[in-house]
Design brief:
The complex is a heterodimer.
Chain A lengths: L1 H14 L1 H6 L2 E5 L2 E6 L6 E3 L4 E2 L1 H20 L6 E9 L8 E10 L3 E9 L6 E10 L5
Chain B lengths: L1 H17 L1 H6 L2 E6 L2 E6 L6 E3 L4 E2 L1 H20 L8 E11 L9 E10 L3 E9 L6 E12 L5
Antiparallel strand pairs in B: 1-2, 2-6, 3-4, 5-8, 6-7, 7-8
The chains are: A alpha+beta, B alpha+beta.
Chain lengths: ~140, ~150
């Protein structure tokens, strides 16, 4: 099962060009995914602080949700985002960002997903995402 | 008034092209008006979110909407707030009504409809080909940061 999950994740990460644009990676512990976004200059939205672009953080959280869904649903197909709400708690500094998704409910057609992002310490999160995703039927 | 808008256009041009993430995504400034801003992002193969369809990634639209909101806030603040400031997103809600067309770029228009001394409230819409046929809408609240006076 875990080999399948790793395969699904690898397929997802490799197939999506925008994932490569972000420079995002991911690791699996069983079927739980930790997404990793190494800092890169092109992700900056505020050069004075410097801080990651708010859109980058939102995008990273959304892709984390999609990646976790692809692992859990056993499909390399990309599910469709219905809506997301991103709450920003702290500036994303010029350092590596991590994220984990919590699948609150996976129904037949729609999944409710919460995602949390942090940098140095998990108990000081940078941002949260709540979203609904339309599941792509695969068969 | 015309001089004001010309000045705002220069700021908009600057915001859309010199911010590293905006430049990396290839944002293009389109227009600015009082409390409003429009920015577009042309389609590019490395920005695709669904390789089965060639549709641009939702994350690109997220960055575009967030950035266009920032432009609208700057446009709303012009003449109202004299000291330089930055914006920090408090929250941003995005509804994706439909995927963009394959290999289509996206344009976003944001309207800062209320600006207080410390908070901006913004709505934004994004479309691919026809202005009326939206792909996404957004609603956000933003803090004004780094203000030195007023």
């Amino acid at each position: 099962m875990s080999e399948d999950a790793a395969g699904q994740l690898e397929a997802f990460l490799q197939r999506v060009p925008y994932v490569r644009f972000l420079g995002m990676r991911a690791e699996l512990s069983g079927d739980e995914l930790t997404a990793i976004l190494p800092f890169a200059p092109h992700l900056v939205g505020n050069t004075m602080i410097p801080a990651l672009h708010g859109g980058v953080i939102g995008a990273f959280l959304e892709v984390t949700a999609l990646a976790q869904l692809s692992v859990t649903q056993g499909s390399a197909r990309v599910h469709k985002t219905i809506d997301i709400t991103v709450e920003y708690l702290r500036p994303g500094r010029a350092q590596t960002t991590y994220a984990r998704a919590d699948l609150r409910k996976v129904g037949r057609r729609v999944a409710n997903v919460h995602v949390e992002a942090w940098q140095e310490a998990r108990d000081t999160p940078v941002a949260f995402l709540r979203g609904h995703f339309l599941l792509s039927g695969d068969t | 008034m015309a001089a004001d808008l010309e000045f705002l256009r220069q700021i908009g041009q600057h915001m859309a092209t010199t911010v590293p993430q905006a430049a990396a995504l290839g944002f293009r400034f389109v227009s600015v008006d009082h409390g409003k801003g429009v920015i577009e992002v042309p389609w590019r193969d490395d920005l695709v979110g669904d390789p089965d369809t060639g549709v641009i990634a939702g994350g690109v639209v997220t960055s575009l909407l967030d950035h266009t909101c920032g432009l609208a806030i700057t446009a709303a603040a012009y003449g109202q707030i004299d000291s330089p400031f930055g914006t920090a997103t408090l929250d941003l809600r995005i509804d994706y009504m439909r995927p963009a067309a394959p290999r289509a770029g996206v344009t976003a228009e944001a309207h800062c409809y209320k600006l207080t001394r410390s908070v901006a409230f913004v709505r934004a819409e994004a479309w691919d080909e026809v202005r009326e046929d939206l792909i996404a809408t957004a609603q956000g609240a933003f803090m004004l940061t780094g203000r030195t006076g007023g």
